[in-house]
Amino acid sequence: MIKKKFYIINKENRTKQIETVLDILFPKYKERSENKFSDYENFGQYFISKEIAEFILNRITEETYTIVIEEYNVNNNYRDSYNSVFSGKHFQVDRFCIRVSLFVGEVDNIFWFIDKNKQKILKGRIIGFFVISPLEISHIVKALIQPRYLTSDKIYMRLSEYTCHIYGVEFKIKAFPYQMQDTETTRCAEATILNIMDYYANTYPEYKVVLPSDILELEKKYCHERVLPPHGITYSVLTKILYELGFSPRLYNRRTMHNHSLTSVTQNDEMKRLLYYYVESGMIVGVNVEPEDLRKSGHSLLCIGHGKEKDKEKAYENSEILISENQKRINIINSADFYKNFVVIDDNQIPYAIRSFDKLSLHDNMSVSNIAVPLYKKMFLEASDAYDIAMRLLKYKKTGLFVRAKEYLDKLKSKNIITRLFLASSNSYKIFKTEENDEQSMEFKYFYSSILLLPQFVWVCELYSEEGYERGYAFGEIIIDASSSAKNGIQSVISLNYPSGINFRNPSDSIEQINENFYPHQDKWCEFKGYEKNLTPIKDDEKNDDEKVDKIK
C-alpha cells in the first residue's frame, strides 16, 4: 500500500521528488534492470513506459505542481483486458491500476477535495492525469493531459473535453487521449484504434466506446491466424475495423501518389499534402511508418495537429505558375507545403510530440507508408480531388483569378497567392462567417446565413496574399460540395467569393447558372478572416480560446 499520496514538485526538489514517485509507480524496474534474466523481448517496452512517465513529469511547464497518487483505480480498457485475458493466467495479476493526477501549485492533503471553496480552486488547476497498469511490465493505460502544460511551442491541434472524477470531485480536461500498447492484448495498431475511438466517442454521440476485446473480435474476421497474443495488423485490416466501427475510411499509400512532371512535387510531398489537408480539417489521421526493408516491422501512430514553423523555401519550390492571356504570371503556393512539423500521439513518445513529416517516428530509417483517414460516411469527395477542382477553377477563363480578382492582383506587390484547403461542417462554417467576421458588411453576413445553401460538409479553398496569410485574412474562397465525387469535376462547385463579388448556385441549378447568380459586394469590400474552428491553438499569446473549436465528424 502506498502511504504518501501527495508530492509537491518545485524548483528545489524537482529531480529528487520525481525519482521518488517513479520508484513508487515502477517498483519492479530496478529489480529487473539488475536481474540477469532481464534482457527479454518486452523489457524495452517497460523501459519506454517509465521513461515516458519521467518525461511527462519533467516536462510540466509549471514551476510548482502537485502529484496526487490514487491506488485501486478501475480503468475500463485495462479491466476489459484483465477479464478477457489476464484473469486466466496461472500467476496472479492485479485488477487495479494506479492513477497519477497533476495539479498546478501546492495541494498537500485530501481536504482540498472535501472543502467546497478549495474544490473551486482545484478545478481551475487541473493539469491532467495518467494511469499505470499493474502488469509485470507496466505501461501507461491512459493519459489525459492538457497540452499547454507539456509544450512551449505554438501548435494547432484537435482536442476534446473529458470529464473525470478524482477523490469524488468532477474535473474537466481538454486533451487528446493517449495510451500505450501492453504487448499482450494490444499492439501499436490496436492502440491507434483505441485512441481514435476514445476521442470520437467522447466528442460525438454517433460513436460508441470501444474496448480492446471489441477490436480483437473484429480482427478475427479479417486475420488468417489467431489474434492473441497480438502480432500487429496491417493498415488494410485497420481500415476494415474502422469501417465496422461506423466510419467510411480512406487508405492512402505513398507509392500510389501522383508524380508531378511539371513541378518538383514528389510522391512524398503529395503524401504530406494529404496529411495536412485532413489534419487542417480537424480529422484524426492514422499514420503507418515502415522501414526501407519491408521485411521488418512497421509502426502505427496518430497525427492530430501541426506546428507553426514554416518551410517557405520548400513551398516556393513546389509552387505552380498561372499565366494569363496577356502573359501575366502568378505563383500559386500550397499552404500544405509550408508546414513540416506535425503533432503526433505515439506510444513510443511523449504525448503531443512535435515531429517533422520525414521523422514522425523515433525509429531510425522509417518513413510514412500509409495514412488512414476515418471519414464520415457522407464525405465522398477526397482532399486531393477537391484541391484539383479548386485549381481548375482558378485557371478557368470565366472563373479564374485573372478575371474575378484582376484589380486586387494589380495592387499586390508580391505576385504570390497562397491556397489553404480544409473540410468544414456547413453549420459551423456559416456561424463563423456571420459571428466571427465583424469587419464584414451586413450584406456579406446575410448572404452566408440566408442565401447560400450548403450540404452537411464542404471543402473550402481559401485564397490569400502573402501579407494576408500572415495576418489570417483571405481575399477569396471556393466552396465545393464534399458529398460530390471526383468525376463531377467543376460541377461540384457551390460558390466563388472574389473581390468583385460572389457567384453561387442552388442545389437545383446547373453549373452554367453559377455565372448568372451573382451577389455583389455592395458596401466597401475588405478581406475576411480565415476559418479557424477546426484546430485549437496552443501556446498562443494572442488567442487560446478552446471554446472556438468546432466539432467535425
Textual characterization of the structure:
This protein is α+β, with helices and mostly antiparallel strands and 553 residues long. It is 29% helix and 26% strand. It has 17 helices and 25 strands. Strands 6, 9, 10, 11, 14, 15, 16 and 25 form an eight-stranded antiparallel beta sheet that branches. Strand 14 (341-345) and strand 15 (353-356) form a beta hairpin. Helix 1 (14-25) packs antiparallel against helix 3, helix 8 (212-222) crosses helix 9 (235-244) and helix 15 (426-435) runs antiparallel to helix 16 (442-451). The chain is globular, with a radius of gyration of 26 Å. The chain starts with 5 loop residues before the first strand and ends in a 15-residue tail after the last strand. The model is unreliable at 34-44 and 541-553 (pLDDT under 50).
Helix run count:
17
Oligomer: single chain
Low-confidence region ranges: 34-44, 541-553
Indicate the percent of residues in helices. 25-40%
How large a portion of the residues is in β-strands, by DSSP E? Answer: 25-35%
Gap between N and C termini: 44 Å
Query: Number of DSSP strands?
Result: 25
Based on Cα principal axes, name the global outline: globular
Mean pLDDT: 90
Radius of gyration over alpha carbons?
Answer: 26 Å
Structural class determined from secondary elements: alpha+beta
Largest sheet: 8 strands, antiparallel
